[in-house]
Amino acid sequence: MEVRKPYFYEALLSFGCLMLVMGIGIAVFGANPHIPMLIGTAIAAVIALKIGYDWKTIEESMFDGIRQALQAVVILAIIGVLIGVWILSGVVPSMIYFGLNILTPKIFLVATVLICSITSLATGTSWGTAGTIGIALMGIAHGMGIPAPVAAGAIISGAYFGDKMSPLSDTTNLAPAMAGTDVFTHVKYMLKPTLVAYSITLIFFGFMGAKYGGMSADLSAIEVMKTGLVSNFQISPILLIPPIAVIFAISRKVPAIPGIFLGIVLGAVLGPILQGVDFGQILSAAYDGYVSETGVESIDSLLTAGGLINMMYSISLTILAMMFGGIMEKTRQLEVIVEKLLRGVKSAQSLIVLTIATCIGSNMTMPEQYIAIVLPGRMYSSAYRERGLHPKTLSNALESAGTLTSALIPWNTCGVFLLGVLGVSTFEYAPYAIFNYTMPIVVIVMSYLGLLVAKIEDDPETVLEAV
Q1: Smallest Cα–Cα separation from 374: which of 179, 162, 189, 184?
Q2: Cβ neighbours of residue 312 under 8 Å, at least 6 residues apart?
Q3: Which residues have a Cβ under 8 Å from the Cβ of 227 and sit 6 or more positions away?
Q4: Which letter does DSSP use for residue 431 in this model?
Q5: How confident is the model at residue 448 (pLDDT cuts 50, 70, 90)?
Q6: What is the mean pLDDT of the segment spanning 366-391?
Q7: Which residues neighbour 409 within 8 Å (Cβ) at sequence distance 6 or greater?
Q8: pLDDT in tens, 62-83
Q9: If you average pLDDT over every residue of the chain, what do you get?
Q10: Whole-angstrom Cα distance, residue 190 to residue 303?
């Protein structure tokens, strides 16, 4: 059978079926996205057979897709190791402890954003932050008479700031991997628009907090957490050296894998000195993660994390998504869809807007933030390069929309999770999740001002092989 270019409806059918299966699996049955993603991959393969490709070619396209994600897979794996070692050595507990000291009733909402930001930066997880410290902060807000949606908006804004900017975050590593640059270049490039959106967020909550500044608060939940951390870990400013070293590595353009590994080594050195742990415990935490047994539920939920094995959720989903993307790309199904979408897109700014819109649409139709980063990244990577745009321009758009808008959609896995832990519906907290919806707007505005349109020729050494 002769191979032909797929018709638009055929390519659209692959995407449509994936959306349908993902939507039913996640929203109706509460399933993880992995098997729906695999079913979508099978459907794309069937359509590829229909247009003339043999199974060997289809199989090779899946393997090619996986190969292109191998750097992201390796980084995700060593980040799991890093988190486990950093918790065991007291690095993460120290960062959280110092963050909790910021809290004062007069600036509760601003302090909430800052505390959640620090915690999420330290752990790389918005979910972990919202599900632990976020719950404690919701209780304090209730005691102060602060409306739950306002408090939830502050928690989510801070949690997603940290998730977006932390080199420990899986989405922060996934976005540059899909675009074709390294994580440190990606984080550095995101800094300018992120600080603008973050400043707007802090100013907003500063004004909102003025209404409640004179009220008293029951800080017992926070004091319990602080006491629990001090009782179980040696808290010391010295333990801030590993994250500072990683930040320094970012500034010096050290490649991601050795930069992160440096953080692991420093944590492993400080752990025996300050926490009295041995090499066997370090190896165990690196593989299985750290299991917190402080007796304080909020601490144990937050610090039972990390380890190579616990990154397999993200790694396996990335592999499955890249199998789907590999088929869609090599059988030209992706090409015909992108051709339609790019009609009328003349400028770099309009391409960035299209990317952001696609990420939001993915979050709405395939309700999982990983997919909202992987698929648009695969779709537009070539278009950015053909226009001479640096991949960090794409990765910034992917992260700013794919990660952050996931929390604003009620049926997305992020929206469902946040409702469950904070007890506030998406429609209630969305107006106050300032950072989440301000970030895509800031990126668009700054792009049209010419501040976020990077050219390949300006930084060619950080352009990796195209995905």
Answers
A1: 179
A2: none
A3: none
A4: G
A5: very high
A6: 86
A7: 363, 364, 367, 415, 426
A8: 998 888 778 778 877 887 898 8
A9: 87
A10: 27
Enter the tokens of residue 352. Answer: 């960035």
Instruction: Please tell me the pTM assigned to this model.
Output: 0.75
Residue 217: the pLDDT is 59
**Structure tokens belonging to residue 414:** 């992020």
- For 317-338, give the secondary structure using H, E and C: HHHHHHHHHHHHHHCCHHHHHH
What one-letter code names the amino acid at 240? L
Nearest to 381 by CA among 350, 401, 405, 351: 351
CA-based nearest residue to 125, from 281, 311, 251: 311
Question: Residue 265 half-sphere exposure, CB side, CA atoms within 13 Å?
Answer: 8
Mention every residue, 6+ apart, whose C-beta is less than 8 A from residue 450. Answer: none
Give the SS3 label for residue 212: coil
How many helices, marked H, and strands, marked E, lie in the chain? Answer: 24, 0
* Tokens at 135, concatenated: 């719950």
Going from N- to C-terminal start, the domains of the chain cover 71-311
- Give residue-wise pLDDT tens across range 257-297: 888 889 899 999 999 999 999 999 999 999 999 999 988 88
Number of CB atoms found within 10 A of residue 244's CB:
11
Q: pLDDT tens digit string along 421-438?
A: 788 888 899 999 999 999
For residues 124 and 102, what is the distance between their CA atoms, to the nearest angstrom? 20
- Angle value at C-alpha 394, between 453 and 344, nearest 5 degrees: 75
Computed on alpha carbons and rounded to an integer, the radius of gyration of the chain in Å comes to: 22
Structure tokens at 113: 């954003």
- The CA distance from 206 to 162, in Å, is 19
Task: Provide the token pair at 15.
Answer: 């995407």
**Could you give the CA distance from residue 156 to residue 169 in angstroms, rounded to a whole number?**
15
Query: Please, are residues 427 and 410 in contact by the beta-carbon 8 Å criterion?
Result: yes
- 14-61 pLDDT, tens per residue? 989 988 998 888 778 888 888 998 999 999 999 999 999 999 999 999
Q: Are 106 and 211 in contact, with CB atoms under 8 Å apart? A: no
> Residue 372: what residue type?
A
Q: CA 60, 62, 65: angle at the middle one, nearest 5?
A: 110
| 456: its two tokens | 């390949």
CA 460 → CA 180, 252, 378, 388, distances in Å? 11, 16, 20, 10
Residue reference for tokens 């292109």: 68
Q: 355, 401 in Cβ contact below 8 A?
A: yes
Per-residue model confidence (pLDDT) at position 28: 83
Q: Can you name the residues that pair with 463 across neighbouring β-strands?
A: 181
User: Chain centroid to CA 303: how far?
Assistant: 18
